[in-house]
Write a structure and sequence with these properties.
Elements (H helix, E strand, L loop, with lengths): L1 E3 L2 E3 L12 E10 L3 E4 L6 E10 L4 E7 L2 H4 L5 E12 L2 E14 L43
Length: about 150
Amino acid sequence: MKEENNETITRVADLNTASRNVNLHVKVLEKSEPKEVTSRRTGETHRVSEILIGDESGTILLSAWDDMIEKIETGKTYDVKNAYISVFQNSMRLSLGKYSTITQSDEEIADEDINRDNNMSSKTVQYRPRGRGRRRLNRFDRGRRRF
């Protein structure tokens, strides 16, 4: 981790399923064609693109949604602030939330400096969502055995 403007810059290799509020200095390596997906909750249609980003320690997929897709260009270096890790199909993804920002950086990362051998998204992770601990028994479940 590197300190920059009183903000800790996290290396891609140091990310894990519990990573929250992370700041990264990364280069965009590849960008997939956007796919249209429908929200299960609202039924709205959104676009999503997987963007491979990396630094000297490794690479990870960034999930970019809707308007953010056009703002991110392949080959450019960006500063990502307040991002978090999500897990999709047992694979880590860097996600941008409501308070996350991504801005183009003046400090470039050379292609040859990026460690493409350590793709954090290609590693299978075991993940249990937080906040869904043991199911509470209601008054009708007490004393019953469940098989």
